[in-house]
Amino acid sequence: MRVLYVHDRLSGGAGESLYQLVRGRPGRGDSIIVCGADGFVGDRFRGLNLDPPPMYQRAHSWLTMRWPETRALSLLWRLAVAPTHLPLLRRVLRVARQHKPDVIHTNCIYLAEGALAARLLGLPHVWHVRELVDLDYYRFVLPKRTVMRCLNALSDVILCNSRRTRDGLIGLGAERSRVRVIPNIVDPPTESLDLRALLGVPDDVLLVGTVGWITPNKRVEDFVALASALADLGPRVRFVIIGGWGGEREYDARIARAIEDSPNRANIVHAGIVKNAAASMASLDVLVCPCFTESFGRTVAEALAAGTPAIGVRDSAVAEIIDHGRTGFLVDRGDVAAMAGYTRRLLAEAETRRRLGAEGARAVQTRFSSAVLLPQLEALYREVAARPGAGVVKAARENVNV
Questions:
Q1: What is residue 396's predicted lDDT score, i.e. its pLDDT?
Q2: How many angstroms separate the Cα of 71 from the Cα of each of 6, 141, 361?
């Protein structure tokens, strides 16, 4: 089964999820990738020696707001730059004509070119949604119900990475019959990164970490508040922020001030971007994910896969990963006191950390490993490729001018 993947940038959770998917697929030439830009996951894609290798073509989002709170101007701007989408569309069409995929799989909601190419070529299309679109945090230039109508019209399957993602889409008008749920693949790390050596801290120091871009939805301020609440633990515990600045100046400045003003400032470490953060998870003693917009929670699953217990927010999709009290703990959004209480307990009880970590590793292997999820994805591809009418226009691929 040959699949053409259309993706935005080879970085972040979506890029990592695509890497895990492609890495496990059999056969040279079964996975063809066209993406908008390289990124810190790109090195590992190159290590797969794909034939053909990933192809890059500058991409532009079709639906995000250009300026906050200015929908009309953002829509006018999107219309004005609409021609900039044509190079990627032409590239996808050329690649499809050359490699003749059975399915086109758009791996993010922000690009429409894969969906348009699939319709022009009469190919089945899978549109992968990895965002909790129903939350107000996601501001789109089009009304969200209009976005759902576009997904319905241009997809054979709308693939969701969690039940929480699915429920949000259906609530906005996604056709239930088109929606499927297959979680992200999370395998145990194939390499190990000694985070203590990277940070230059002693081996007996305990590490509490959070992973992700420093953006408002990640609630990094809650992690800094957690570190402040546990200042009495002193230098034997370090609180590590793994991730780059998100680029929102006011929020970046807010977090920088919060760190500087914290009574535990000396023990808060901003490690910046770690290219393969999953490899460092085994170095952490506790992973804390204060984010409330997790549509899956990859960093949480990676921590559990590495045997590290995690704390997450219960009204996000993380609740589908953490079994409360068995592999970690769930708290209400913004409940720093509860986060601090569970973190203090885990740091004090080495046997509890070991037990929860072992249970977490077993749970991830059972529910999210490539051995479990790849057969489901391959079955989905075969199903959409075999649907009546899926191949009706395939012959036209040979005659499409690109």
A1: 39
A2: 27, 6, 44
